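dumping this here so i dont lose it
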C-alpha cells in the first residue's frame, strides 16, 4: 500500500514539515526517501530556470540538474523514469510563493519521458528531461470545484488551479428539458408589475430594446417541480433578485413571492373587469 502523508489536496506545508512527513531530505526538487518508499517532486514556480507547465491536467515536469545537459542515470531522474515499476510512490508539491509547499497529491507518469531544450540558470541552452505526470485520481474535483471552497483560495492558488486544467476541452453533449412558457402571460405579469421588481420594489435596472422596463418572469414553483404556467404562480422581478432566489432558494422569499403571485391573479381579474366596462 502506498504511503499516506495525511494531507489533503491544496494543503500548504513548510519545508520542515514536508521533510518530517516524508522523512526525506530538505533540499532539491526531487527528494527520495527509503524510509517511506516515496519520491517527492517539487515544481517551484519561484525558480525561473525550471519550466514546468500544466497542459490539460498533465504537468510537464522538468527533471533535476541546474547546469548542462540533464542525465537520466545516477540521480532521481532515473527514479521518476522507473516509477511505474520500482515500487516508489511519487508525490507532487508546487511552490508558488517562497517557503510554501502546496500539496497536489500522488502522481504517476502518464506519458513517456522525453528530452527537450531549455535554458539553464545562466541562460545557456541545454537538454532537459520532461516527465509528464498527473494526479492518480484525475482532476475531476478541480474541473468541478466546490463554490464554497473557491472563496478560500488565494489569487496565486486560483491561477495555479486554472493552469492545472488548461488546454483544449472537448464540448460535452447535454440534454435539457425545455418547458413551454406562455409569452402572453409573461407580458401580463410585467404590466401588473408596472416597471418595479415585485420582490425588492426597486425600479427595473434598465429599459430594454422595445422601450420597456426590463423585468424577468419567475415561476414561484418551478415548472420542473410541477408548477403551473399561470398568473397565480408567476411574478416579475429584476435580474438581481431572480438570480438571488434561484441561488439561495430562501424559504422566506418563496413565501413572499407566493403571496405576490396570488395578488397578481386578483389584480388581473380587476384589470379585465375594468377593460370590460370600458367597452
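and the seq i came up w/
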Amino acid at each position: 500500500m502506498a504511503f499516506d502523508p495525511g494531507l489533503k489536496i491544496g494543503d500548504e506545508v513548510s519545508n520542515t514539515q514536508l521533510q518530517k512527513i516524508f522523512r526525506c531530505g530538505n533540499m532539491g526538487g526531487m527528494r527520495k526517501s527509503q524510509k517511506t518508499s516515496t519520491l517527492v517532486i517539487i515544481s517551484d514556480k519561484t525558480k525561473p530556470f525550471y519550466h514546468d507547465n500544466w497542459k490539460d491536467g498533465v504537468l510537464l515536469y522538468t527533471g533535476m540538474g541546474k547546469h548542462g545537459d540533464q542525465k537520466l542515470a545516477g540521480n532521481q531522474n532515473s527514479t521518476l523514469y522507473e516509477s511505474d515499476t520500482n515500487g516508489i510512490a511519487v508525490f507532487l508539491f508546487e511552490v508558488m510563493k517562497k517557503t510554501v509547499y502546496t500539496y497536489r497529491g500522488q502522481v504517476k507518469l502518464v506519458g513517456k519521458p522525453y528530452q527537450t531544450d531549455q535554458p539553464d540558470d545562466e541562460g545557456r541552452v541545454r537538454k532537459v528531461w520532461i516527465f509528464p505526470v498527473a494526479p492518480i485520481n484525475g482532476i475531476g474535483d478541480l474541473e468541478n470545484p466546490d463554490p464554497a471552497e473557491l472563496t478560500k483560495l488565494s489569487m496565486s492558488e486560483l491561477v495555479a488551479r486554472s493552469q492545472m486544467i488548461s488546454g483544449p476541452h472537448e464540448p460535452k453533449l447535454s440534454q435539457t428539458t425545455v418547458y413551454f412558457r406562455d409569452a402572453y402571460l409573461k407580458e401580463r405579469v410585467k404590466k401588473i408589475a408596472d416597471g418595479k421588481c415585485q420582490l425588492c420594489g426597486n425600479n427595473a435596472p434598465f429599459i430594454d430594446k422595445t422601450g420597456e422596463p426590463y423585468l424577468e418572469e419567475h415561476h414561484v414553483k418551478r415548472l420542473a417541480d410541477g408548477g403551473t404556467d399561470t398568473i397565480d404562480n408567476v411574478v416579475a422581478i429584476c435580474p438581481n433578485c431572480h438570480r438571488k432566489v434561484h441561488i439561495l432558494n430562501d424559504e422566506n422569499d418563496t413565501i413572499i413571492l407566493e403571496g405576490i403571485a396570488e395578488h397578481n391573479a386578483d389584480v388581473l381579474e380587476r384589470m379585465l373587469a375594468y377593460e370590460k366596462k370600458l367597452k
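The mean pLDDT is 89.
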